[in-house]
Amino acid sequence: MRDELAGFTIGVTADRRRDELAALLQRRGARVVLAPALRIVPLADDTDLREATRACLEHPPDVLMANTGIGMRGWLEAAEGWGLAEPLRATLARAYVVSRGPKATGAIRAAGLREHWSPGSESCDEVVEHLVSRGVAGKVVAMQLHGERQPECTDALVAAGATVIEVPVYRWAPPADPAPLHRLIDLVAGRLVDAVTFTSAPAAEALLRAAGDRTETVLEALRGDVLAGCVGTVTAEPLVRRGVPVSAPSRARLGALVRTIVEELPRRTVSVKAAGHVLTLRGHAAVVDGELRQLAPAPMAVLRALAASPGKVLSRTALLRTLPRGADEHAVEMAVARLRVGLKAPRVVQTVVKRGYRLRVD
């Protein structure tokens, strides 16, 4: 098969670059569920941003912490609107510039500035460690925030003797339409998606917060059947802290995240031989002798149960437990019938009179 992710369903929680990430996944055959967990609200007219900008002009920073590309661009664009862009650029040009990642570096260079150092991990902790070891006592540090305050970083710098000017350029807000996020939570809780992607730590926190009393159910799914794909280790931190195993590339890029998912999801497939056919279970589809067969959730659930114990007879009652709540034994019969049609290999699933069904492995 050329489409490495064919048969898999993947949730995308990003907002700003959701279309780009979705396209990368769909190009590899995945079915994508778009469900932004947060949205970015610019603060171009915010009083706090203007005051922070004036503070930087009145007390020129010795150090600039550029955390995000969108934040640095937004700050300079806001300053342009206030007629302060050139004075701000001139002031920041004299600072020791720490760029937390490649996007921030790109924004710094586009503004005609130059970065002096970047952390390998793209983490705030590594930035603080570098600055403290370099010495910040008596110095002014301008910290461009990325969505919300980072009190642990600010406090560590203040404890080392620095004066910190926090620059809030944008904030995180709930999605304008929360319905897709709640739908994704339903799918994760029901193990009806194969992976969920996260491109920021706040998005991971937001999804768990939105899950409410189902948070532990969602975490259990992410600890087992549903892959948590994070763009980097910083993004993964809220999930790792809760015992969720994550897959993250060594470099925080969307393309690298997609490649990581392409490597990981196919490893989770199950292959069995039945009635002379080779079946591989991939997410919401089965590959029968190399041909992809899309299946609805109920037939797929029945196939998974049967494939978990090839040749073993499962009763209607046992199979009923794999179907959505409210289903009855007639629903099991319907699911089996639809499974046979969907596989286009009717002999694969054998009816054992008065006992149930099994995969025909003999």
Automatic annotation (TrEMBL):
What is the organism field in this record?
A: Micromonospora echinospora (Micromonospora purpurea)
Please name the top-level EC class of this enzyme: lyase
Q: Which CDD domains match?
A: HemD, trans_reg_C
Superkingdom, taxonomy of origin? Bacteria
All copies of domain OmpR/PhoB-type, residue ranges: 267-361
Keyword DNA-binding attached:
yes
Q: Which key words tag this protein in UniProt?
A: DNA-binding, Lyase
| Alphabetized Pfam families for the sequence | HEM4, Trans_reg_C
Instruction: Tell me the protein's name.
Output: Uroporphyrinogen-III synthase
The molecular function terms in GO held by this entry are: uroporphyrinogen-III synthase activity
Secretion signal span: none
Q: Which residues bind DNA?
A: 267-361
EC number(s) from the headed UniProt entry: 4.2.1.75
